[in-house]
């Protein structure tokens, strides 16, 4: 059974920085094997999104875990966030590391970035795990979008605030990260169905039955994909992978999720 945090904490000295696209970008390298990029959710860090999966994944893959603009230990470059720019930043990091191609595993906002990696930089992507994401506004309840119109830092889940301050203890930075994320979601524009259809690599759509976006949206995404797989698991947003904002003590779902992930990641790609 997977255990939360212990192994991850012991290997957190794997951290590095890369100067790319105006960022002093923080990333971690763990393990050996086929390259696997982990992209966290909005307002999150590597630890809050992936602490319960990363140690086990690092036993099978070379994990490249990133922190995106204004998040965690990565600086803000004084420009708005965009999913397209996040995808370009991940692409530049792979170039910096001389990694020609990798599987991309994105959670929540990171799932949107992962899909855009496959669209904008297809030569660098071998397969995608899009976990708890959305590619258009109708995938979420209208109240979700309305909430960003008057959002304040008080609305941010406390585990995410605590995690940011633990690795980058700068209250002004925390507010900057929050403002950037809120602005991006206020201005979110749908991806086109044709863009999703254009993805040629295998994509696993991973979702919760009580997620931020609806299970129906997960099915809609899956049906657009040329080589899609779908798994809908019980629980809230990211609970199946032990994400800090929803995971409860004694949560055993990450162990089941790991089996789903490794089965997908290790499956031969049909020629």
Written account of the structure:
This protein is 37% helix and 18% strand. It contains 11 helices and 8 strands. It has helices at residues 6-10, 46-50, 54-57, 83-96, 109-120, 142-146, 158-167, 171-186, 193-197, 215-224, 253-266; strands at 15-20, 23-30, 35-39, 62-66, 102-107, 125-131, 203-208, 228-233. The longest helix is centred in the middle third of the chain and has 16 residues, at 171-186. The chain starts with 5 loop residues before the first helix and ends in a 5-residue tail after the last helix.
Describe the structure concisely for a colleague.
This protein is of the alpha/beta class.
Alpha-beta classification? alpha/beta
What is the makeup of the main sheet?
Answer: 8 strands, mixed
Helix share of residues? Answer: 25-40%
Poorly predicted runs: 1-7
Ends distance: 35 Å
| Average pLDDT for all residues | 92
Cα Rg: 17 Å
Order of helices and strands: HEEEHHEHEHEHHHHEHEH
Q: Could you tell me the number of beta strands?
A: 8
Q: Specify the overall morphology.
A: globular
Percent of sequence in beta strands: 15-25%
In the sheet with the most strands, the strands line up as: 1-2-4-3-5-6-7-8
How many helices? The count is 11
Features:
single chain; alpha/beta; eight-stranded mixed sheet; 37% helix; globular
């Amino acid at each position: 059974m997977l255990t939360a945090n212990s192994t991850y904490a012991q290997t957190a000295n794997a951290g590095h920085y890369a100067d790319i696209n105006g960022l002093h970008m923080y990333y971690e390298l763990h393990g050996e094997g086929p390259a696997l990029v982990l992209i966290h959710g909005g307002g999150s860090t590597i630890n809050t999104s992936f602490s319960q999966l990363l140690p086990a994944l690092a036993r099978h893959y070379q994990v490249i875990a990133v922190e995106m603009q204004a998040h965690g230990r990565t600086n803000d470059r004084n420009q708005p966030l965009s999913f397209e720019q996040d995808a370009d930043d991940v692409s530049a990091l792979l170039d910096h590391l001389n990694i020609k191609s990798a599987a991309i595993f994105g959670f929540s906002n990171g799932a949107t970035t992962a899909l855009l990696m496959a669209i904008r930089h297809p030569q660098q992507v071998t397969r995608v795990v899009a976990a708890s994401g959305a590619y258009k506004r109708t995938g979420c309840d209208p109240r979700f979008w309305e909430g960003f119109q008057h959002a304040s830092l008080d609305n941010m889940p406390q585990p995410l605030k605590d995690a940011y301050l633990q690795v980058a203890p700068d209250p002004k930075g925390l507010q900057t990260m929050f403002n950037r994320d809120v602005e991006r979601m206020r201005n979110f524009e749908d991806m086109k169905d044709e863009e999703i259809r254009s993805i040629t690599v295998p994509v696993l759509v991973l979702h919760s039955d009580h997620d931020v976006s609806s299970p129906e949206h997960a099915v809609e995404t899956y049906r657009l994909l040329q080589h899609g797989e779908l798994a809908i698991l019980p629980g809230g947003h990211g609970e199946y992978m032990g994400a800090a904002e929803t995971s409860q003590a004694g949560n055993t779902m990450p162990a089941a999720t790991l089996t789903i992930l490794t089965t997908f990641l290790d499956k031969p790609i049909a020629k």
